[in-house]
Design a protein that fits this description.
It is a single chain. The protein is of the alpha/beta class. It has two domains: 4-128 and 267-278, Thiolase/Chalcone synthase (Peroxisomal Thiolase, Chain A, domain 1); 139-187 and 210-263, no CATH class. 31% of the residues lie in helices and 16% in strands. The strands form two sheets. Strands 1, 2, 3, 4, 5 and 8 form a six-stranded mixed β-sheet that branches.
Length: 280
C-alpha cells in the first residue's frame, strides 16, 4: 500500500441557504466548486494538467447539481479537458467519501494526484429535490425496512440514551461559542477562499455567515422541537407515522422530540476540496 499525503485544503465560506437573499444563492453550484479548483491552482498546490481525477461528493444530483457536477465544475474552472471527474452520493457523508475514494486510489497505486471534496447549494437544490424520499418510493422496501429521517433518528437516540433537552442545548451553546472564538482568532483563514461574482469579481462572501455568535442559553431554550411535525407524517405502508415507526426501537416507550434548530445541522451553501498525492 502506498502512502497518501494531503497537500492542501480549501473551502468556500459557508452561507445560510436561502432561495432569495442567501449570500451564495445566486452562484451556480458548478461555479462554487470551480472557484475552489481555481483557488487551489492560484495557491500553487496543484498543476491541473497533472491531476489524475477529481472526485466530488454531492447529495442532491438533480437540476443545477445534475449532469456529473464534478466534471462540469472542472470545465467551468478552465482546467484541461483531459482532466476527468466523477460525482458520488453517500448522503451527508458524500464529501468525506470522495476524499476516501481519492485516498484509496492513491494508496492502491491507481493515481498519483487527485482533488477530492464536495459541493452543495441548498438554496438552489433543497433537501428532497430529487423526489426519492428515503427509499426511492419503493413500497416493497418500505414494508421490509422502514427508514427514519436523520432528525427523528437523533431524537430517538437521545430518548434511548436518556438525554434531556438542557443537555442538548448546552452542546449547541458550546458549539456556537467555539465557532465564534475560532472565527475571531482567524482559525479558518488558511483554508478559506472568498467567493466572488463570476462576472464582476466582486467578493460575495469571505467569512462563514452560518454561526450565530450572539446565541444565548435562553435563546436555545425558547426554540420549538424541530422534528415534531415531521414525526406526525404518515410514512408506513400500514398508515404508521414516522414517530410510530421510530418507537419500534423503544420497547413500548414514547419518542421525545428534543432537538431544535439550535442543535441541528445548518442548511448551507458551499464547497470544499483537498489535494491528495502519492509520495512520488
Amino acid at each position: 500500500m502506498n502512502g497518501c499525503f494531503v497537500l492542501d485544503a480549501v473551502r468556500t465560506p459557508r452561507a445560510r441557504a436561502k432561495p432569495r437573499g442567501g449570500a451564495l444563492a445566486g452562484i451556480h453550484p458548478q461555479e462554487l466548486f470551480a472557484q475552489i479548483l481555481r483557488a487551489l491552482e492560484r495557491r500553487g498546490s496543484v498543476n491541473p494538467a497533472e491531476v489524475d481525477d477529481v472526485v466530488v461528493g454531492c447529495v442532491s444530483q438533480v437540476g443545477d447539481q445534475g449532469s456529473n457536477i464534478g466534471r462540469c465544475a472542472v470545465l467551468a474552472a478552465g482546467w484541461p479537458h483531459a482532466v476527468p471527474a466523477v460525482s458520488l452520493d453517500r448522503l451527508c457523508g458524500s464529501g468525506l467519501q470522495a476524499v476516501h475514494f481519492g485516498a484509496g486510489a492513491i494508496a492502491a497505486g491507481a493515481a498519483d494526484l487527485i482533488v477530492a471534496g464536495g459541493v452543495e447549494s441548498m438554496s438552489r437544490v433543497p433537501m428532497g429535490a430529487d423526489g426519492g424520499g428515503l427509499d426511492g418510493n419503493n413500497l416493497l422496501l418500505r414494508a421490509e425496512v422502514p427508514q427514519i429521517p436523520q432528525g427523528i433518528s437523533a431524537d430517538l437516540i437521545a430518548t434511548i440514551e436518556g438525554y434531556k433537552r438542557e443537555h442538548l442545548d448546552a452542546v449547541g451553546l458550546r458549539s456556537q461559542r467555539g465557532a465564534a472564538r475560532a472565527m475571531s482568532e482567524a482559525r479558518f483563514a488558511r483554508s478559506l477562499a472568498p467567493v466572488v461574482h463570476p462576472d464582476t469579481g466582486v467578493v460575495l462572501l469571505d467569512r462563514d455567515d452560518t454561526p450565530r455568535p450572539a446565541t444565548t442559553e435562553a435563546d436555545l431554550a425558547s426554540l420549538p422541537p424541530a422534528f415534531a411535525a415531521l414525526g406526525s407524517a404518515v410514512a408506513g405502508v400500514h398508515g404508521e407515522t414516522l414517530d410510530q415507526l421510530a418507537e419500534r426501537g423503544l420497547s413500548g416507550g414514547r419518542l421525545r422530540h428534543l432537538h431544535t434548530a439550535g442543535t441541528s445541522s445548518g442548511i448551507a451553501d458551499g464547497a470544499a476540496a483537498v489535494v491528495l498525492a502519492s509520495e512520488s
